[in-house]
Structure formats: structure tokens, C-alpha cells
Amino acid sequence: MDYGQDANPSALLRLVKEHRKLGLSSAKAALLLLAAFLVASFLFTGVGNARSLRNFAQQAPNVISFLTRSAFESPEITWAQVTSTITEKLQQKIQTRLEKARRYHESLSNSIHLQNPTTPRLLFLQGSGGRLGNFLFCTASLIGIARRNQYTPIYLINDERTTLFTGLNIEILNRTDALRLTRQTTLPEISEKGAAIYSDYIADFPLQHGNQSVILSGFLQSFKYFHAFRDEIRTALTFTEAILTQAVQSINDSLNALHGENNGAMYRRVPRLVGIHVRRGDITAADDLKNFGFLGATIHYVMNTIRLVRRLHRNSGTVFLVVTDDVDYCLNVLQLRTFKDVAVVSSKDNPPAVDLAVLSLTETVIMTVGTFGWWGGYLSESEEVYYYRKWPKKKSRLAKLVERRDYFLPTWHGWV
Ligand SMILES: *[C@@H]1O[C@H](CO)[C@@H](O)[C@H](O)[C@H]1NC(C)=O
Ligand SMILES: *[C@@H]1O[C@H](CO)[C@@H](O)[C@H](O)[C@H]1NC(C)=O
Ligand SMILES: *[C@@H]1O[C@H](CO)[C@@H](O)[C@H](O)[C@H]1NC(C)=O
User: Fold this and answer.
1) What is the pTM of this model?
2) Block means of pLDDT (10 residues each) for the chain, length 416 residues?
3) CA-proximal residue: ligand 3, atom 14 (nearest)
4) Which residue puts its alpha carbon closest to atom 4 of ligand 3?
5) Which atom from ligand 2 is nearest to the alpha carbon of 210?
6) What ligand 1 atom has the least distance to the C-alpha of 173?
7) Pick from 50, 77, 93, 151: CA 20 to 30 A from residue 166's CA?
8) Could you tell which of 171, 176, 179, 182 is best to mutate to test the pocket of ligand 1, judged by most ligand atoms within 8 Å of the CB?
9) For residue 123, which of 144, 108, 137, 101 has the smallest C-alpha distance?
10) What is the residue with the minimal CA distance to atom 11 of ligand 1?
11) Which residues are registered as beta bridge partners of 364?
């Protein structure tokens, strides 16, 4: 079946890793690495020329430099210029997204056939417990499964989170109206086998239910329910202008805050924006959740992926924007403020939607665990997304509810 997967330029990474595992001679491995970095620089920055080769040759692979200077480089720019360039680009990006989302929202207003005298084929979503990430999975799956079967998606819930998105245009009905419109005496309910396990009987529900209108329930956390419609999903889930504007301001503020550190230094290029989501909270604190199989990513994972991404994009440079539900942990345990290229964006005042919008504006996403980070990766449209490979805990009850191939996009990178 075609789930419409994206192309995968960073398969390279895996190649390098695998050859390391195979234990090639160091000379061969070095050659492979050299080739991989050349191609990677070509793919990631479009600069597959002698400059990359020189840079590679000048720097041992493990020496990370946010600021690589070279006599061959373009004119240098200040940190203030870097910040304003990034902010301006992001403002253009959000305007483009908003225009598309508004057009999409409009187009749906004309195509809702609820008042149509013939029996409509409606697919209802009954609820979406949990927080923003859960809501997004339920909504995306509702739209994806409805499109796939030419049904109209409908909410049976009045969830205030629907107002966070410019593109979202799904009618809300109560049960009485739902029954009246469908002319059915009952609304069959479709339940899932696990929170993150894809099932054909859900995706192709009309086969079992004789084209009736039905209610979807559960967590529906598989990209396979909606990835074939990814452009529509991402357009529908474009945040409101107010949220996106606040996200850009947060990024601007965070970059300005790095200014003290970076003042006086000069830069060759505008660095790549990398979003990191550090999920802590209940899953790392509550015993019942830990016993169930939830866990947080390790300190090693966060540091390891930061180093990896810095190294991969050493030509452009990188700046890391951290969003988290535990600022203290990021500052005091991970000590992220000690790096001059890492800014902690989250504050107690940032609503979760703004933090998620920040992630959606970055070019590479490092998630730890959890659906919030998952959606940061998905909405960013990045082809470079990292996740903590040891989640969920092996042999736990949670592990039985998660099929990793259904949950993580095959183009994303599991890391430890
Ligand atoms: C259902 O919604 C309709 C239209 O919005 C309203 O008239 C009706 O009173 C509602 N019924 C219930 C049971 O809430
Ligand atoms: C359901 O609809 C499809 C096409 O819309 C049709 O081919 C099929 O016969 C219908 N099945 C039933 C049981 O009505
Ligand atoms: C970004 O920060 C700079 C420096 O404080 C400020 O002049 C500029 O107006 C800010 N831009 C936005 C969009 O907030």
C-alpha cells in the first residue's frame, strides 16, 4: 500500500553507521565518511564543491566549530544580522503557510454537503483525550481516513483546541443531529487494538460497515492513517497567525539572548535552525507511568544528537532552539545554557501551541519522546528528524500498544 513516503536524503547517515558497525578498516571507514560528508553537504547546503572538501580536510571529524572561518569564505556577518535574517525569513514562511491555510479553509466551506438531501457519508470523531499531541493525531487520522473513503470528517466533540488552527474547518455536531443527518438509528463505533498500531479494518472501515456513518475512537497514532494526505494535513494544522507570530517573536528573543555570548564574533552563513523538544513531566515522574513503559530520553541521547547535527551541518553552522515542559532540567541538568549555540525558548508563559509552532518552523527536529515532539517533527516538514530509539520500554505494557513501524516515519532517525 502506498502511504506516500517522502524521499530520504539522509539515508546516508544510516549507511555510515552501518559501516561503522561492520567494523571496516579505519582507512576504508575514513574514505566512506569523506564521501558521505561530501554528499551530505551537497544535499543539505547545495554546496558540493571544493569548499566542502577543504573544510572537511581542515577539521578532524570530532572537532565541532560553530564558527568555521576560512580565507575562501564569503563576507562575514554579525550575530545581529544573522538574527534579523532568520526572523525575516520566518516571517515570510508563516505568511506563505497562512495564505495556503486560509485558501484551504475557504475551499472546504463550499464543499460541506451536510445539508444535502441524500444521506451523507460522515465519519465522526468522538473525543481525543490527552493534550495537544493526542488531539493532533486524532484530527489528522480523522481527516486522512475520511479522505481515503470519501467521507466527510465531523467532530462529535466541542474541543476548544480546534480554534488553534487557521486551516482546520471541520463541522461540530451533537449526537442528535448526527443521527438525524445520517438517518441511522445507531452510530457504530470503531475501536483500535493499540494506541499506535495501524489497522486496515480502521483505515478501510466501510468494507465492514456497509458504507454507514461511523464513530472513530481511540488514539489513532499512526502516520499511515494520513500520510498520503500530508500536504492537506499540514495545511489544515497551520496554527493561527497570532500563535505563529508569537513563535517567531520567541525565536527572535532567544536568538537575541544568545547575542551577549556571540557579540563580536563574525559568521559566514546564516546557521541552520534546529528544534529540540525535551519531554519530561509526568512520564519521568509518575511511577504508574514509568511502570507502564513510559520513559524520558537520556542526557546522552540529547547531547549525542546535538553533536551529530552540529557535525552534519558544520558548513552552514547550527543554532539549537530548545522547547520543553521542564526548563529547570534543561538548564540545570543538561546545562544547555553553557553552549553558545543553544537557546532555551520555552518559558512558563509560552502556551504549548506556541512551543509547537516554534518546532514547526525549524529545519531539523530532535524529538525525545512523546506525541508533542512527534508533531513538531511532522509539522516542520523536515526530512531530518531524530527520535529516542529506546522508547517505549522493552516488554512493557506500553510496548504492546505501539508498533514502531506504524508510529515513526521510515525517513526519521532512531538514535540513542
Ligand atoms: C444539538 O444541536 C442542535 C443544533 O445546534 C440544537 O438545536 C440541539 O438542541 C442540540 N441537541 C442537544 C441534545 O444538545
Ligand atoms: C459501498 O460503496 C461502494 C462505492 O461507493 C460500493 O461499490 C459498494 O457496493 C457499497 N457497499 C455497500 C454494502 O453498500
Ligand atoms: C527582533 O529583535 C530585534 C532586537 O531586539 C528587534 O529590533 C526586532 O523588532 C525583533 N523582531 C521581531 C519580529 O520581533
Assistant:
1) 0.82
2) 37 38 44 51 43 40 39 72 96 98 90 62 87 96 96 90 95 92 93 92 94 94 98 98 98 88 78 95 78 86 96 94 93 90 88 97 96 97 95 90 95 96
3) 249
4) 256
5) 13
6) 2
7) 151
8) 176
9) 144
10) 176
11) 274
CATH number at residue 69: 3.40.50
- Longest CA–CA span in the chain (Å) reads 77
> What is the model's pLDDT at position 116?
60
Question: Which residue's CA is the closest to the ligand 1 atom numbered 4?
Answer: 177
Would you state the pLDDT for residue 65? 41
Per DSSP, 331 falls in state I
373: in domain: yes
Domain that holds residue 83: 63-94+241-415
Domain tally for the chain? 1
Q: How far is CA 323 from CA 14, 145, 180, in A?
A: 27, 31, 45
> Please, which residues have CB within 8 angstroms of residue 315's CB and are 6 or more apart in sequence?
41, 44, 45, 47, 51, 52, 55, 68, 269
